[in-house]
Structure formats: structure tokens, C-alpha cells
Amino acid sequence: MTISFGTFSKLTAGLMIAAMVASCGNKEQVKTSAPATTASAAKATEPIVFVNSDSLVSNYNYFKDIKTRLEAKSKKAQQDLSSKGTAFQREVADYQQKAQGMSADERASTEQRLARKQQELEAFNQNASSALANESAGENEKLYDKVAEYLKAYAKEKGYKMVLTYSKSNPSLLFADESLDVTTEVVKGLNDKYAKDKK
């Protein structure tokens, strides 16, 4: 009887990363080079602007805190699974060494017990992965709501009619003048608000 531990590590990390990426794009930062004065002048007269979600995600402190917390939970779950798995494999090895000296009933009883333990280990793996995926999805929803709520107020204050989003991993916005990029200003506002909310 054997069990693989690599699956849990890849699955939990994959679930967390996939959930974050689906909501906000990846962490690659696309830099803009428009001078601040030109950008400010253009933004004051343009009804449509955009936010680079790659830069937003990599610079928004709330997202960084979520990522750190979920990574810590994933690491702990992996350590727990690894510990349980190591103990289980020791029991299997011990049984294999002693099997020849056991009666048929003892072997059957031990094999049934080990089979139950393996099922419990697999259930632990699945439950931990599901719990992490659910928490990640919930955090992504909160993240989306925070950004959307802030942008709604921000657009109203600045007189923008629309705020688009750009991500290198999902480029639905193929081109926009760099003077329309309000990412830096939005990230600063989000971080300021988050800092106040934490107090």
C-alpha cells in the first residue's frame, strides 16, 4: 500500500493561485512610461480610464496579506499531510516485515486497518484542499468587492464614465494610451483605505 504526497502540494498551491489569477490576473507588472504631468492633464478630461490589474494585484497590500495567509495555511496543511503520510508508510513497512509471521486472520485484520487509514488520509487530503479552495474563493470575492467599491467612488469623484481593466494574461484591452492608466493612483488610494480599515 502506497500513497503519493506530491498531489496535495500541487493541488492546494494550484487551487490558490488559479483562484487568485482568475479574479485579478497574475502578478506580472506592466510598467507605463507616460510623464505624470501629461497623465494628470489627460485624466482630467477623459471620461474613460483603465487600471492594470497585474500591477494592482502585485502592489495592493490587502492582496499581499491574503496571499501570505493562504500560503501559510497551505504550507501547514502540506506539513500535516506529510507527517500523517510518513507515519502511515512506517506502519505499512512494519506490516510488510511482520506479515509472514502473522496468521491469516491477523494479516486480514491489519490490512483492513491499513486500508481504512489510507482512506482517512485521502479524505484528509481532499477536505484540506476543498477548505483552502473555498477560503480562496471567498477571499477573491472580498477582494473583487473592495476594488469594485473603491473604483465606483473613485470614478464618480474624478468624473470618469468607465474604468476598464487590463491584464497581460487576459488582454481584452488591446491598446490604450498610457495617459489613461490610473493604476498608480488607484493602488495608492486602495492601500490608504486598507491601512485605515486595519486600524
From TrEMBL:
Pfam families named among the record's database cross-references: OmpH (PF03938)
Keyword Coiled coil set for record: yes
GO molecular function: unfolded protein binding
A single BP term in Gene Ontology: protein stabilization
Regions annotated as coiled coil: 107-134
Domain of life per record: Bacteria
GO annotation, cellular component aspect: cytosol
UniProt keyword list: Coiled coil, Signal
Family annotation (InterPro entries): Chaperone_Skp (IPR005632), Skp_dom_sf (IPR024930)
PANTHER family assigned: CHAPERONE PROTEIN SKP
Family listed: Belongs to the Skp family.
Protein name: Periplasmic chaperone for outer membrane proteins Skp
Organism: Arcticibacter pallidicorallinus
Source lineage: Bacteria, Pseudomonadati, Bacteroidota, Sphingobacteriia, Sphingobacteriales
